[in-house]
DNA sequence: CTGGCATAAGTGACAAATCGACTAGGAGAT
DNA sequence: ATCTCCTAGTCGATTTGTCACTTATGCCAG
């Protein structure tokens, strides 16, 4: 359901193949969602079945034909309806916090190591997001579309930074 | 898979029925995970099948018998193994950021309203978490188990606060 | 000139998670 | 009377997530 909308959103920016979409999910969209390519192809087929997208085969030399998916009018309506729909309940899903919650039986040193491992992971992610943010042009100040896209990256960065601060504070006061 | 571990973690704190577990998922654990009762009962049955938990029927007056689930030694080992296992890749999953990312076609006022709706939701969540945090005793300073549980709530609070700050900053600079 | 990697575009099958509706009954409060 | 709480589930459909397998060319290193 949600993947349907995300893919529609991407197709609304430009026609794409499953391969193109996968690249987006691994880069530009990766700070708020992840999708496997099997999921992408499956959803794409469903979109076409439901008339929200159409396929156009674009021949290429030396490479397999591109199966370009284009959003339809119905697809645009569906996307608009999603954007305007009520916000779903916000269900946190943080496997790392879960580990910490249940880590009461671990030795102090083990807990410290767990927090350290997570910190390294978060730090790497932060560096990645900041590099992406640095690559953004200055269109993001004036153009609303570019601004909103940049804002989501900023949101991702703030989340990671908050987590790192939390990890440090948790480590410092650990009894 | 992950639910298996979370339920094992809760059973490790005290024997519980499916109903008890549901209450925990709706309160103490709700800032990092959510589970539906159908999932809980299904997982409980699976734990018993796999020998990670046992059931004891505790008769009650005026109420249905409690089907108390107790963690077994194998269950404790499984829980320990999970706590020590490598961290999985950290896949962000933020449907709200997704909306913002694709909101480029919306009117400025609509975007503002979208951000406002989210802010109200986050604010309510923050109030809820802060109330829970205030109810925590002072054991959380000395006792490691209590400390770690309190720390996860603190983590939840920091996440929500970071989001509210992001929403405000995004609103202020919206072109 | 062969083997491996990248590009390109998928398919298939299964496991796990999610969601919503339905069933069943007594106790106590408004 | 009706509503909520406590207790315990079940059923079925849809959605997600994971992993392995396929086909074919271009290009580079050894």
TrEMBL record, chains A, B:
<dbReference type="Pfam" id="PF10400">
    <property type="entry name" value="Vir_act_alpha_C"/>
</dbReference>
<dbReference type="InterPro" id="IPR005149">
    <property type="entry name" value="Tscrpt_reg_PadR_N"/>
</dbReference>
<dbReference type="InterPro" id="IPR018309">
    <property type="entry name" value="Tscrpt_reg_PadR_C"/>
</dbReference>
<dbReference type="InterPro" id="IPR036390">
    <property type="entry name" value="WH_DNA-bd_sf"/>
</dbReference>
<protein>
    <submittedName>
        <fullName>PadR family transcriptional regulator</fullName>
    </submittedName>
</protein>
<feature type="domain" description="Transcription regulator PadR N-terminal">
    <location>
        <begin position="7"/>
        <end position="80"/>
    </location>
</feature>
<dbReference type="Pfam" id="PF03551">
    <property type="entry name" value="PadR"/>
</dbReference>
<feature type="domain" description="Transcription regulator PadR C-terminal">
    <location>
        <begin position="93"/>
        <end position="174"/>
    </location>
</feature>
<dbReference type="InterPro" id="IPR036388">
    <property type="entry name" value="WH-like_DNA-bd_sf"/>
</dbReference>
């Amino acid at each position: 359901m949600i993947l349907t909308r995300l893919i529609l959103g991407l197709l609304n920016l430009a026609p794409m193949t499953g391969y193109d979409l996968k690249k987006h999910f691994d880069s530009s969209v990766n700070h708020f969602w992840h999708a496997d390519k099997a999921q992408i192809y499956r959803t794409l087929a469903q979109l076409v079945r439901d008339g929200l997208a159409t396929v156009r085969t674009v021949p290429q030399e030396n490479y397999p034909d591109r199966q370009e998916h284009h959003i339809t009018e119905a697809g645009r309506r569906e996307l608009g309806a999603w954007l305007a729909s009520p916000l779903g309940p916000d269900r946190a899903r943080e496997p790392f916090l879960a580990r910490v919650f249940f880590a009461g039986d671990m030795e102090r040193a083990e807990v410290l190591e767990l927090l350290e491992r997570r910190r390294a992971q978060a730090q790497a992610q932060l560096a990645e997001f900041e590099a992406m943010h640095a690559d953004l042009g200055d269109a993001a100040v004036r153009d609303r579309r570019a601004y909103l896209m940049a804002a989501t990256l900023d949101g991702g960065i703030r989340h990671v930074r908050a987590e790192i601060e939390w990890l440090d504070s948790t480590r410092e006061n650990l009894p």
